[in-house]
């Protein structure tokens, strides 16, 4: 583990480790972390326009298009006309996308659980509380 000088450094090391574990967990399904996030977001939004997806993922619209193209090629999402605006398109999950999303979520939770396993239940609850404070303040 690299030398760390601050809480921020420790958070960065932990975030990098968690991203690596997530990537390894998702590799079984040949899905990148970005594709997994996009699929999860499409499911949570119950379909979304590309612009809304890009905004939710904090990525450029062009990047959202590329991610959706990759998910669509795999049969995990499909584009449909927006019922509220015929000129617009929404992205919706396919049944296979819904199935895979569940598997990916399970894999991500398992990877996080392994990383956090050294913590006692009380410590994990306290960590969750502190992280929520920081997320809410940002």
From TrEMBL:
GO MF, any single term: DNA-binding transcription factor activity
Family matches, as Pfam families: MarR
Top-level division of the source organism's lineage: Bacteria
PROSITE patterns attached to this UniProt entry: HTH_MARR_1 (PS01117), HTH_MARR_2 (PS50995)
Gene3D superfamilies according to UniProt: Winged helix-like DNA-binding domain superfamily/Winged helix DNA-binding domain
InterPro entries reported in the protein's UniProt record: HTH_MarR-typ, MarR/SlyA-like, Tscrpt_reg_MarR-type_CS, WH-like_DNA-bd_sf, WH_DNA-bd_sf
Keywords, ordered alphabetically: DNA-binding, Transcription, Transcription regulation
GO biological process, one term: response to stress
Record-linked PANTHER family: HTH-TYPE TRANSCRIPTIONAL REPRESSOR YETL, TRANSCRIPTIONAL REGULATOR, MARR FAMILY
Protein name, as recorded: DNA-binding transcriptional regulator, MarR family
């Amino acid at each position: 583990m690299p030398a760390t000088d601050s809480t921020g450094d420790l958070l960065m090391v932990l975030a990098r480790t968690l991203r690596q574990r997530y990537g390894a967990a998702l590799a079984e399904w040949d899905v990148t972390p970005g594709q997994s996030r996009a699929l999860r977001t499409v499911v949570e939004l119950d379909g979304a326009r590309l612009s809304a997806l890009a905004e939710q993922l904090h990525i450029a619209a062009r990047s959202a298009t590329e991610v959706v193209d990759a998910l669509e090629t795999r049969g995990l999402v499909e584009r449909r006309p927006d019922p509220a605006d015929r000129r617009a398109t929404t992205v919706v999950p396919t049944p296979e996308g819904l199935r895979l999303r569940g598997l990916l979520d399970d894999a991500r939770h398992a990877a996080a659980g392994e990383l956090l396993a050294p913590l006692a239940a009380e410590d994990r609850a306290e960590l969750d509380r502190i992280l929520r404070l920081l997320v809410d303040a940002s």
